[in-house]
Design goal:
The protein is of the alpha/beta class. The chain has helices at residues 6-23, 37-49, 77-84, 106-120, 155-161, 180-183, 199-207, and strands spanning 28-31, 59-62, 64-66, 96-97, 124-127, 149-152, 174-177, 188-193, 225-229. The chain is globular. The relative contact order is 0.17. The structure holds 2-amino-2-deoxy-6-O-phosphono-alpha-D-glucopyranose (GLP).
Length: 244
C-alpha cells in the first residue's frame, strides 16, 4: 500500500500489527529497528497508552543486532527497541527475545537463536530495507536460504547507519542477524520503506529478479507479504505492482 505520507504509513502499519496481536492468544512478532520504525512504533505506543492495544500476551523477537557494542550502548538494537517501543508498552520484560551479540561463542549463539526463532513460528515479521536492498543485516550476496549467523557489514550499510553514531569509525563491522531463510519462515511479513533513498531498493525488491544481490527480492517468494510505502519510496515502482 502507498500511504499519503510517512505518518500515515506508520499508522496503517500499526493497524496491521495490532490486528495480528489481537487475533492470536499468544502473538509472536519479529521486530526490526531503524529510522523507518519510529512512526509505526510510536503509533503502537499511543494505542497502548489509550488502552486500545495490549502486548501483555505477546512475545517479541529482535531481528538483528550489532556485535561488539557495550550492553548499555544506545545504538545496540536491544536498547533501541526498548527506548522506541518495549519500555512504553505492556510487553513483559522477559517477552523481548534477542540474540546475545557479545556471546563468547558467537557462532554457537547464532545457532541457538536460529532455533529459538524457528521454533517460535512467528505470526508477523516487521522489516525495513537497506538502500542496498538488505533485510535485517543480510547484505547483497546473502544466500536466500541463509540462517541466523554472524555477518560482516558492507561499507554502504556502515555509512548509512553512521548517522546514529559519532562517526562511521564507531559503527560496528559485524552483526548477528536472522537469515533470509529465517525471515521467510514467518507467517506474515510487513515490509515498510519510507523516503526517496529507498525507492530503487523497493523497485529492485518488488519488481526485479529474485537474486541474492538484492536480498529483499526473496520476499517475492513469500505467500503473505504486505508492503507499506510513502509516495517517495514508491516513486520508482511500475503501475500495478502488487503490494500485498
Ligand atoms: C539496518 C537494519 C535493518 C533496517 C535498515 C534500514 O541495516 N539492520 O533492519 O531495515 O538498517 O534502516 P532505516 O530504517 O534507518 O533506513
Amino acid at each position: 500500500m502507498v500511504a499519503p505520507d510517512a505518518r500515515a504509513a506508520g499508522e496503517v502499519a500499526a493497524d496491521l500489527v495490532a490486528a495480528v496481536v489481537q487475533a492470536s492468544p499468544h502473538p509472536r512478532i519479529g521486530l526490526a529497528t531503524g529510522a523507518t520504525m519510529v512512526g509505526v512504533y510510536g503509533a503502537l505506543v499511543e494505542r497502548c497508552r489509550d488502552g486500545s492495544l495490549s502486548f501483555a500476551r505477546t512475545t517479541a523477537y529482535l531481528l538483528d543486532d550489532y556485535v561488539g557494542l557495550d550492553d548499555r550502548h544506545p545504538q545496540a538494537f536491544r536498547n533501541v527497541i526498548r527506548v522506541s517501543l518495549a519500555d512504553h508498552v505492556d510487553l513483559p520484560t522477559e517477552a523481548l527475545v534477542a540474540p546475545n551479540p557479545n556471546a563468547s561463542d558467537l557462532d554457537g549463539e547464532a545457532r541457538r537463536y536460529e532455533e529459538v526463532v524457528g521454533s517460535a513460528h512467528l505470526d508477523l515479521q516487521i522489516l525495513g530495507i537497506g538502500g542496498n536492498g538488505h533485510i535485517a543485516f543480510n547484505e547483497p550476496g546473502s544466500p536466500l536460504d541463509s540462517a541466523t549467523r554472524v555477518v560482516t557489514l558492507s561499507e554502504a550499510t556502515r555509512r548509512a547507519n553512521a548517522r546514529f553514531f559519532d562517526s562511521v569509525d564507531d559503527v560496528p563491522r559485524q552483526a548477528i542477524t536472522q537469515g533470509i531463510g529465517t525471515i521467510l519462515r514467518a507467517e506474515q511479513i510487513l515490509l515498510i520503506a519510507l523516503g526517496p533513498h529507498k525507492a530503487a531498493a523497493v523497485r529492485d525488491a518488488l519488481e526485479g529478479p529474485v537474486t541474492p544481490e538484492i536480498p529483499a527480492s526473496a520476499l517475492q517468494t513469500h505467500p503473505d507479504v504486505r508492503v507499506m510505502l510513502d509516495p517517495e519510496a514508491a516513486a520508482m515502482l511500475s503501475q500495478g505492482t502488487p503490494l500485498g
